[in-house]
Write a structure and sequence with these properties.
The chain is an alpha/beta fold. It is 39% helix and 14% strand. It contains twelve helices and 14 strands. The strands form three sheets. A seven-stranded mixed beta sheet has the order 1-9-8-5-4-2-3, sandwiched between helices. Strands 10-12-14-13 form a four-stranded antiparallel beta sheet. A three-stranded antiparallel beta sheet has the order 7-6-11, with no helix packed on it. Bound molecules: pyridoxal-5'-phosphate. Pyridoxal-5'-phosphate binds next to α3 and α4. Pyridoxal-5'-phosphate (PLP) binds next to α3 and α4.
């Protein structure tokens, strides 16, 4: 009998009851705007900022409307100007180069390694071209952060971290987003906490945070934020920093606060699923599993593997056969951008020199989401299906 999987790869868990209850209370109060507060009230958004700052160990956190908004705010807060070059990963998702382009700045793509992390050799070569690296921990893979920071410090590169896939992850115990000057996170539905849309911006830098708060649309009510730099810092920046509204509201904050309390347990639940699938895929002929470094604490909310040097038709055939058995794989390297494809050459507004070594890897990246609505049995079944179909196509090729 051929086994078939019938779960949905886009079905998230419900919002926790506690979050629904808190959201109802916000709605009943009618006070949804983050600055619509009683005199002595911090409010859901301010409380969430305090709790998130403490979770990642940052001095300051700002809750915003989306992860992409946090990235663009970071570029503004460090003074990126139209025409400036900004280094970023060749392997990332569209909102990352998009945030750079939204500033009128120019993305310069840095290659990807077989570990699916930024190519530090290529970064060293390109470091002189820019003042800022927007580092995307795409699909939760952390580069060697010690080496990366040494390269960036040597060449005076400011690091902004895109932690859309690494909320809850760490390098040698340091929370992801805390090595760079600024860490940006997303709470969009498919990330590690779900408020539909939303994000965070964290830093220890007084002036960067003061600018970010004003940029986010604080209407000179910045004193009411959850984590606030000293007043004299605002005096220095408040007349010169534009308002580019992108606040989070109390409703989203209310549904996020219980999720933050549960985040570490959720991360463990993802990793139990990830580790099962990885184990099931190991040793499949023609398939390369991505080894995770010892120093990395990862969050396996999705899994990637490589079909290196496979013909396009054979990769298509694997996708097709898995789909027929209910397993939805994404081919990030597909030639035509569709859905969440992630190749630097699909972003034609930001032309790049070809990177043959990266192209070979990008072409072979297969991705699969692991929503927490999947049971461990589901994950074992999914791995058996992929293993069988990759194996069958590989054998037919040989
Ligand atoms: C989702 C995502 C973002 C931005 O998140 P939004 O909240 O959707 O704007 C940034 N980077 C990566 C890699 C992402 O997957």
């Amino acid at each position: 009998m051929t086994e078939v999987f019938s779960g949905s790869f886009t079905q998230q868990e419900p919002i926790p009851d506690e979050g629904i209850k808190a959201a109802l209370e916000v709605m009943q109060s009618g006070r949804l705007h983050r600055y619509n507060l009683q005199p002595d009230e911090v409010g859901e958004t301010g409380l969430l900022e305090q709790e998130f700052a403490s979770y990642v160990g940052a001095k300051y956190a700002l809750a915003v409307a989306s992860g992409g908004y946090a990235l663009a705010t970071a570029l503004r807060a460090v003074g990126v100007k139209p025409g400036d070059k900004v280094l970023t990963n060749a392997f990332t998702l569209a909102p990352v180069p998009g945030s750079i382009a939204s500033m009128g700045a120019v993305p310069v793509f840095v290659g990807v390694t077989e570990d699916l992390t930024i190519d530090l050799e290529d970064l060293t070569v390109k470091a002189e071209q820019a003042n800022v690296l927007m580092l995307s921990h795409m699909r939760g893979h952390l580069a060697d952060m010690d080496r990366l920071m040494a390269i960036c410090n040597d060449s005076g590169l400011i690091v902004i971290e895109d932690c859309a896939h690494t909320m809850g992850a760490a390098w040698k115990g340091r929370a992801s987003g805390r090595d760079g000057l600024i860490g940006c996170y997303s709470t969009q539905t498919y990330k590690h906490m779900n408020s539909g849309e939303g994000g965070f911006f964290v830093t220890d830098d007084d002036e960067v945070m003061a600018r970010a708060i004003i940029l986010s649309g604080s209407y000179m009510l910045y004193g009411r934020n959850g984590t606030v730099p000293p007043p004299e810092v605002f005096e220095r920046v408040k007349y010169e920093t534009p308002n580019v509204s992108g606040r989070m509201d109390h409703l989203r904050a209310a549904i996020l606060r219980p999720q933050l309390r549960a985040l570490n347990d959720q991360c463990n639940a993802w990793n139990a699923r990830y580790d099962l699938v990885e184990k099931g895929l190991r040793g499949t002929p023609g398939l390369t599993v991505i080894d995770r470094p010892e120093a990395e604490t990862y969050v396996g909310s999705s899994i990637q593997f490589l079909l290196l040097d496979w013909e396009n038709e054979a990769i298509d055939e694997v996708l097709h056969r898995c789909k027929a058995r209910g397993v939805e794989l994404k081919w990030f390297g597909g030639a035509e951008p569709s859905g969440f494809t992630s190749r630097y050459d699909s972003w034609r507004y930001a032309p790049s020199e070809r990177m043959p070594k990266s192209d070979r890897i990008l072409k072979g990246i297969i991705d699969m989401r692991l929503p927490l609505t999947f049971s461990l049995e589901d994950c074992a079944l999914i791995a058996r299906i992929i293993r069988a179909e990759v194996g069958a196509v590989f054998q037919a090729q040989a």
